[in-house]
Amino acid sequence: MNIALIFAGGVGQRMHSESVPKQFLKLGGKPILVYTIEHFQNSSEIDGIILVSLEDWIPYCNELIRKFGLSKVSSVIPGGRTGFASIGNGLRKAMEVYPGDSIILIHDGVRPLIDLKLISDCIKSVKNHGSAVTVADVIETIVEIESDDIISSVIDRSQCHVARAPQCFILNDIFNAHERAVAEGLEFVDSASLMDHYGYSLHAVQGPIDNIKITVPADFFVFKAYVEARENSRVFGV
Known about the structure:
By secondary structure, this protein is an alpha/beta fold.
């Protein structure tokens, strides 16, 4: 089976959106989170979706699932204190309801500009290589800076990529690595860092350049522009 774990448990302090977490900000009457989930809902290769949410917003998530026909969402569970803990909650739930040899695609609820091709490419990569970490090319110069603000080196950007999401693995593998980290008192910024720490081979999958994470207000306006451009292309056939 192929399943998606979408975590949307953050409060989005950098978005300055007052009382509404960023994943629930609306564009065209539809929350960002719904745009994200719909990609997995519409993929013929995805069998189920687990959503990790802020606990107080779970009833609203269930309302959105009904309203937008997100029938593949099998579970909505509360997140943890951190993103790492939230993913852990999702992995434990996945182990309860899906086979351990399933492919799991771990994705940010506020990364709504993926596409069906990326989902398919990630699944294929896990089947062939055991993992899939979505990456994007670095398009600006990268420098290394010493503690006194001296640039010590200019790094060849052709060798650099930005790790994004989905990050995808065999469920048993990522679950066991996560539980080991918890037992050892470790936390990681993302699943790729976790799996790298425990010696798993990571395979890169090129994703679309516009696969951004909605973090600050400027990101929301970029997302808005992309959605409007896509709608205009459908209307005018361009």
